[in-house]
Amino acid sequence: MALYLTGDPEADQLLADDPFALLLGMLLDQQVPMEKAFRGPYDLKERMGGRLEAGEIASMDGEALAALFRGPPALHRYPRSMAGRTQDMCRMLVERFAGDAASVWAGATTGQELWANLKALPGFGDQKARIFTALLAKRMGITPPGWDDVAGPYGRPGHFSVADIDGPEALVAVRRHKKEMKAAAKAAKVNAAP
Protein backbone atom coordinates (compact mmCIF):
# COMPACT_ATOMS: atom_id res chain seq x y z
CA MET A 1 0.00 0.00 0.00
CA ALA A 2 1.31 3.48 -0.85
CA LEU A 3 2.04 6.05 1.83
CA TYR A 4 2.29 9.83 1.32
CA LEU A 5 3.75 11.08 4.57
CA THR A 6 7.08 12.73 3.69
CA GLY A 7 6.76 14.34 0.28
CA ASP A 8 9.69 12.17 -0.86
CA PRO A 9 8.76 9.02 -2.82
CA GLU A 10 11.83 7.07 -1.65
CA ALA A 11 11.26 7.92 2.02
CA ASP A 12 7.56 7.07 1.68
CA GLN A 13 8.45 3.75 0.06
CA LEU A 14 10.72 2.87 2.98
CA LEU A 15 7.80 3.52 5.35
CA ALA A 16 5.53 1.29 3.26
CA ASP A 17 8.10 -1.50 2.98
CA ASP A 18 9.73 -1.50 6.42
CA PRO A 19 7.53 -1.85 9.53
CA PHE A 20 10.36 -0.64 11.76
CA ALA A 21 10.75 2.55 9.69
CA LEU A 22 7.01 3.23 9.98
CA LEU A 23 7.04 2.65 13.74
CA LEU A 24 10.11 4.87 14.13
CA GLY A 25 8.50 7.62 12.05
CA MET A 26 5.51 7.58 14.38
CA LEU A 27 7.79 7.75 17.40
CA LEU A 28 9.52 10.82 15.96
CA ASP A 29 6.19 12.51 15.14
CA GLN A 30 6.08 15.08 17.90
CA GLN A 31 7.21 18.69 18.10
CA VAL A 32 8.39 18.64 14.46
CA PRO A 33 6.50 18.80 11.15
CA MET A 34 5.02 15.44 10.26
CA GLU A 35 7.00 15.20 7.01
CA LYS A 36 10.27 15.66 8.91
CA ALA A 37 9.34 13.06 11.50
CA PHE A 38 8.41 10.41 8.97
CA ARG A 39 11.44 11.18 6.81
CA GLY A 40 13.66 10.61 9.86
CA PRO A 41 13.92 6.82 9.37
CA TYR A 42 15.09 7.29 5.77
CA ASP A 43 17.74 9.79 6.82
CA LEU A 44 18.85 7.64 9.74
CA LYS A 45 19.16 4.63 7.44
CA GLU A 46 21.40 6.66 5.13
CA ARG A 47 23.55 7.76 8.07
CA MET A 48 23.84 4.15 9.22
CA GLY A 49 25.30 3.02 5.91
CA GLY A 50 22.05 1.76 4.38
CA ARG A 51 20.88 -0.27 7.38
CA LEU A 52 17.96 0.38 9.69
CA GLU A 53 17.65 -2.41 12.23
CA ALA A 54 16.20 -2.29 15.72
CA GLY A 55 18.79 -4.73 17.05
CA GLU A 56 21.71 -2.66 15.81
CA ILE A 57 20.27 0.56 17.22
CA ALA A 58 19.48 -1.14 20.55
CA SER A 59 23.11 -2.14 21.01
CA MET A 60 24.73 1.08 19.74
CA ASP A 61 26.68 3.43 21.93
CA GLY A 62 24.16 6.09 23.00
CA GLU A 63 26.51 8.97 22.17
CA ALA A 64 27.14 7.57 18.69
CA LEU A 65 23.39 7.34 18.06
CA ALA A 66 22.88 10.87 19.38
CA ALA A 67 25.58 12.09 16.99
CA LEU A 68 23.69 10.52 14.07
CA PHE A 69 20.53 12.29 15.22
CA ARG A 70 22.35 15.63 15.52
CA GLY A 71 23.43 15.49 11.88
CA PRO A 72 23.65 18.01 10.36
CA PRO A 73 20.88 18.42 9.67
CA ALA A 74 19.31 17.23 12.90
CA LEU A 75 16.76 14.45 12.53
CA HIS A 76 14.56 16.03 15.19
CA ARG A 77 14.14 19.25 17.10
CA TYR A 78 15.42 17.37 20.19
CA PRO A 79 18.04 15.05 18.72
CA ARG A 80 19.60 13.75 21.95
CA SER A 81 16.26 13.07 23.62
CA MET A 82 14.78 11.38 20.55
CA ALA A 83 17.91 9.30 20.01
CA GLY A 84 17.52 8.01 23.56
CA ARG A 85 13.82 7.34 23.09
CA THR A 86 14.57 5.56 19.81
CA GLN A 87 17.14 3.38 21.50
CA ASP A 88 14.73 2.59 24.35
CA MET A 89 12.06 1.57 21.85
CA CYS A 90 14.55 -0.58 19.95
CA ARG A 91 15.63 -2.32 23.14
CA MET A 92 12.01 -3.14 23.93
CA LEU A 93 11.48 -4.40 20.38
CA VAL A 94 14.48 -6.70 20.80
CA GLU A 95 13.45 -7.93 24.25
CA ARG A 96 9.75 -8.37 23.64
CA PHE A 97 9.39 -8.86 19.87
CA ALA A 98 12.76 -10.37 18.81
CA GLY A 99 13.62 -7.09 17.07
CA ASP A 100 10.71 -7.45 14.62
CA ALA A 101 8.52 -4.32 14.60
CA ALA A 102 5.80 -6.05 12.58
CA SER A 103 5.34 -8.49 15.47
CA VAL A 104 3.93 -5.61 17.51
CA TRP A 105 0.79 -5.80 15.37
CA ALA A 106 1.04 -9.16 13.59
CA GLY A 107 0.73 -11.02 16.88
CA ALA A 108 -2.21 -8.94 18.13
CA THR A 109 -5.50 -10.81 17.84
CA THR A 110 -7.65 -7.87 18.93
CA GLY A 111 -7.56 -4.11 18.65
CA GLN A 112 -7.16 -3.90 22.41
CA GLU A 113 -4.10 -6.15 22.30
CA LEU A 114 -2.61 -4.09 19.45
CA TRP A 115 -3.21 -0.86 21.33
CA ALA A 116 -1.68 -2.35 24.51
CA ASN A 117 1.41 -3.50 22.55
CA LEU A 118 1.85 -0.03 21.11
CA LYS A 119 1.19 1.79 24.37
CA ALA A 120 3.87 -0.33 26.07
CA LEU A 121 6.53 1.05 23.70
CA PRO A 122 8.64 3.94 25.01
CA GLY A 123 7.37 7.19 23.51
CA PHE A 124 3.90 5.84 22.71
CA GLY A 125 1.29 7.34 24.98
CA ASP A 126 -2.45 6.88 24.70
CA GLN A 127 -3.02 9.25 21.78
CA LYS A 128 -0.01 8.11 19.74
CA ALA A 129 -1.03 4.46 20.18
CA ARG A 130 -4.57 5.30 19.01
CA ILE A 131 -3.32 7.22 15.98
CA PHE A 132 -0.90 4.45 14.99
CA THR A 133 -3.65 1.85 15.38
CA ALA A 134 -5.74 3.94 12.95
CA LEU A 135 -2.76 4.34 10.59
CA LEU A 136 -2.21 0.58 10.51
CA ALA A 137 -5.88 -0.01 9.75
CA LYS A 138 -6.51 2.79 7.26
CA ARG A 139 -3.22 2.80 5.38
CA MET A 140 -1.87 -0.73 5.85
CA GLY A 141 -5.04 -2.85 6.08
CA ILE A 142 -4.21 -4.23 9.54
CA THR A 143 -7.62 -4.48 11.19
CA PRO A 144 -7.82 -6.84 14.17
CA PRO A 145 -11.33 -7.00 15.64
CA GLY A 146 -12.04 -3.91 17.72
CA TRP A 147 -9.30 -1.75 16.19
CA ASP A 148 -11.80 1.02 15.54
CA ASP A 149 -12.90 1.06 19.18
CA VAL A 150 -9.36 1.60 20.46
CA ALA A 151 -8.51 4.07 17.69
CA GLY A 152 -11.38 6.24 18.89
CA PRO A 153 -11.95 9.36 16.77
CA TYR A 154 -8.88 8.56 14.67
CA GLY A 155 -10.64 5.47 13.34
CA ARG A 156 -13.55 7.44 11.90
CA PRO A 157 -13.67 8.79 8.36
CA GLY A 158 -12.28 12.30 8.02
CA HIS A 159 -8.95 14.09 8.12
CA PHE A 160 -7.93 14.00 11.77
CA SER A 161 -4.39 12.61 11.80
CA VAL A 162 -1.53 11.06 9.86
CA ALA A 163 -3.74 7.96 9.54
CA ASP A 164 -5.95 9.86 7.09
CA ILE A 165 -3.28 11.02 4.65
CA ASP A 166 -3.64 9.31 1.30
CA GLY A 167 -2.28 12.11 -0.87
CA PRO A 168 -1.43 15.83 -1.00
CA GLU A 169 -5.03 17.04 -0.59
CA ALA A 170 -5.50 14.91 2.52
CA LEU A 171 -2.28 16.33 3.97
CA VAL A 172 -3.68 19.85 3.59
CA ALA A 173 -6.95 18.79 5.23
CA VAL A 174 -5.15 17.16 8.17
CA ARG A 175 -2.99 20.26 8.66
CA ARG A 176 -6.11 22.44 8.65
CA HIS A 177 -7.79 20.19 11.24
CA LYS A 178 -4.71 20.26 13.51
CA LYS A 179 -4.49 24.04 13.22
CA GLU A 180 -8.17 24.38 14.15
CA MET A 181 -7.73 22.05 17.13
CA LYS A 182 -4.70 24.02 18.39
CA ALA A 183 -6.58 27.30 18.03
CA ALA A 184 -9.58 25.89 19.92
CA ALA A 185 -7.33 24.59 22.71
CA LYS A 186 -5.57 27.95 22.96
CA ALA A 187 -8.88 29.80 23.08
CA ALA A 188 -10.18 27.46 25.79
CA LYS A 189 -7.03 28.06 27.82
CA VAL A 190 -7.35 31.84 27.50
CA ASN A 191 -11.04 31.71 28.43
CA ALA A 192 -10.27 29.55 31.48
CA ALA A 193 -7.64 31.96 32.82
CA PRO A 194 -8.74 34.01 35.86
Written description of the protein model:
- The chain has helices spanning 9-17, 19-28, 34-47, 54-59, 62-70, 79-97, 103-106, 111-119, 126-140, 147-151, 168-192.
- The chain has one domain (9-192): Endonuclease III, domain 1, CATH 1.10.340.30.
- Helix 1 (9-17) crosses helix 2, helix 2 (19-28) crosses helix 3 and helix 5 (62-70) crosses helix 6.
- The termini are far apart.
- The radius of gyration is 17 Å and the shape is globular.
- 64% of the residues lie in helices and 0% in strands.
Task: Indicate the topology.
Layout: H1 9-17, H2 19-28, H3 34-47, H4 54-59, H5 62-70, H6 79-97, H7 103-106, H8 111-119, H9 126-140, H10 147-151, H11 168-192
In short:
The protein has 194 residues and is mostly helical. The protein has a single domain, classed as Endonuclease III, domain 1 (Orthogonal Bundle), CATH 1.10.340.30.
